[in-house]
């Protein structure tokens, strides 16, 4: 694809999504991430976009844009599946687990639908529906108990806010599987939604341990609201495309780093 066509496609994507990632643009355009970065630099010089960690956004736009569930569920599916399979190996019969909202935790839910009988607490409408109706591979076994907490619905189909946090304060979970919008050496784990950050912190407080599920594209992405610092995660499961520098920073800060082979 010629440079002019790439630039036009990048501008269209930024105007449509407000925030785009280098990895997604590289996949969309069929070029290397380095080429995308050079294109973004050129477009920034022309005042058409603004560079951020791992991507680009509309000039002057705050890092509060939250892509919808439908878009995110079509991205990096192989990596999310690998992370989900690795995470599912940590779940045992009789556990009470938390599943935060997001497409990677949704992928984990698909692995657990017909797995061990557990109690699932989630603020994800999609995950609750999945346990009720079953995955594409077959109907749910209805062996697990699912508790859907209430709250205000976000673009990613998460229920957040005071009602959600109040509900979580009454619960005690063995492990929380948490999806995040971004992870960064300085900002930690972040989200573009202020209420979701508060809800996720309440989720973490209710669990004995927290396992963060985040594919490689989340590295260097910073949302407006902090959920937790890296060292507050007991484990982090990511995929094998994560860069060496990121692996080093995460290994130094997270208690346990797991790399899932996609």
Tell me about this structure.
The chain has 262 residues and is of the alpha/beta class. It is 39% helix and 23% strand. It is built from ten helices and 15 strands. The protein has helices at 3-17, 22-29, 33-45, 69-72, 77-88, 103-112, 125-133, 162-168, 194-206, 244-253; strands at 19-21, 50-52, 55-57, 96-99, 119-122, 145-148, 152-153, 159-160, 173-179, 182-184, 188-191, 207-213, 225-228, 235-239, 257-260. The strands form four sheets. A seven-stranded parallel beta sheet has the order 6-5-4-9-12-14-15, sandwiched between helices. Strands 1-3-2 form a three-stranded antiparallel beta sheet. A three-stranded antiparallel beta sheet has the order 10-11-13. Helix 6 packs parallel to helix 7 (125-133). The radius of gyration is 18 Å and the shape is globular. The model has no long low-confidence stretch (mean pLDDT 88).
Order of strands, widest sheet: 6-5-4-9-12-14-15
Q: Any idea what the shape is?
A: globular
Distance between the termini: 28 Å
Helices and strands, in order, run as: HEHHEEHHEHEHEEEHEEEHEEEHE
Strand content: 15-25%
What structural class results from the helix and strand content?
alpha/beta
Sheet of most strands? 7 strands, parallel
Which percent range fits the helix content? 25-40%
**What's the rounded overall pLDDT mean?**
88
Uncertain regions spanning at least 5 consecutive residues: none
* Rg calculated over all Cα atoms: 18 Å
């Amino acid at each position: 694809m010629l440079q002019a066509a790439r630039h036009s496609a990048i501008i269209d994507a930024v105007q449509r999504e407000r925030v785009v990632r280098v990895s997604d643009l590289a996949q969309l355009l069929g070029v290397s991430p380095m080429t995308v970065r050079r294109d973004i630099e050129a477009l920034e010089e022309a005042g058409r976009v603004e560079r951020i960690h791992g991507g680009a956004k509309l000039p002057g736009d705050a890092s509060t844009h939250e892509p919808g569930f439908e878009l995110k569920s079509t991205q990096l599916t192989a990596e999310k599946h690998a992370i989900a399979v690795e995470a599912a190996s940590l779940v045992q019969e009789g556990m009470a687990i938390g599943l935060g909202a997001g497409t990677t935790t949704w992928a984990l839910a698909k692995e657990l639908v017909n797995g061990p009988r557990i109690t699932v607490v989630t603020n994800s409408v999609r995950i609750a529906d999945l346990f009720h109706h079953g995955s594409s591979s077959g109907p749910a076994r209805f062996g697990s108990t699912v508790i859907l907490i209430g709250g205000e619905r976000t673009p990613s189909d998460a229920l957040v806010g005071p009602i959600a946090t109040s509900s979580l304060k009454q619960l005690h979970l063995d492990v929380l599987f948490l999806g995040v919008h971004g992870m960064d050496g300085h900002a930690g784990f972040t989200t573009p939604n202020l209420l979701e950050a508060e809800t996720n912190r309440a989720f973490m407080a209710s669990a004995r341990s927290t396992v963060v599920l985040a594919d490689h594209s989340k590295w260097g992405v910073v949302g407006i609201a902090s959920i937790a610092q890296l060292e507050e995660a007991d484990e982090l499961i990511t995929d094998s495309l994560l860069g060496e520098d990121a692996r080093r920073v995460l290994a130094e800060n997270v208690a346990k780093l797991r790399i899932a082979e996609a």
